[in-house]
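Reminder: ligand-aware prediction takes two inputs, not one.
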Amino acid sequence: MTGSAPRPPRRSVLLRATTAAAVAVPLCTAGWFGWRALDHSDPAGAAATATAPAAAPAPTATDRPGPADGTTAPPLTPPVAPPPSTAPAAAQTPPAGGAGTATSLAGRTVLLDPGHNPGNSAHTAEINRRVDIGNARKECDTTGTETDAGYTEAEYTLDVSRRARAILAARGATVVLVQDGDRPWGPCIDQRARAGADAHADVALSVHGDGGPAAGRGFHVIMPGRVVAGKADTTAIVEPSHRLGLLLRDRFRAATGEPYADYVAEDGLDTRSDLGGLNLSTVPKVFIECGNMRNSTDAQRMTDPQWRQQAAQGIADALTAFLTTQEKTEERHGS
Ligand SMILES: [Zn+2]
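Here is what comes back for the chain with zinc ion:
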């Protein structure tokens, strides 16, 4: 595919946002909706703003001020290695191509960031509070999207992250989850970004499902752009995160058969400078939007535990390759 899928005029996005709010369909601003909020018709302009404090983001359905007095966020869940008994049987499956052994990741630490939190929808005041992401202020967290049947992005991201943790732990890695269904909401995106450094992680990855137009499907990987503004300085992580992004795109597609997104990004890759979870990270980090939960085909896949295991396998294989090889996959276009 060419990645030049027709895009609706900007006005329709705002109408969509209004509609979404009216029917209470939550949004994941890390994916299509956030991508649409940026001006992707002007790549040069977007690049030029990447290193400067951004203008206030366009109003969206989720743009609501937080509580005036500021809500104190509970502390991040202490990192706890999962007991072996929580590992699904498939976790013992060796990586494709023999890319790792049971101990190949010994001494390495991976931070997994399951996007959103199943409890966020019951804590709107807390998650709507704005936090500093370096070049802007954004909501602490969002509720995420969901399928038509009500399977939420937060449930999906936590399940896939746990499955990936089991695979990586079986390969010897120490795996830390930003949240493990053990806190009522959040954490905020700035805490999610700092969690990599807090855990002394070698690499970090945030799992999401997108809330794009129903006719669009496929997955895409989001890599950090260079941002030097306020608390943010991604200079040191841009290149290694790009390497991780390419590995993730290839391993995820190989494991799941999922096509590149046909409604957002280019050849399954996007670079963003408006995501707090990336801007404030000091360890290599990418996001993956594993599919479009608003699309019936993707929703069916993402609701299937077997497919989620494949998704986790692709994620774990990419992280393993990142940590154990110098492999640098070439960007390919038109595939
Ligand atoms: Zn999300």
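Confidence is low (pLDDT under 50) at residues 1-24, 41-101. Residues 28, 30, 115-116, 144, 153, 208 surround zinc ion (CB under 6 Å). We will return to this case in the review session.
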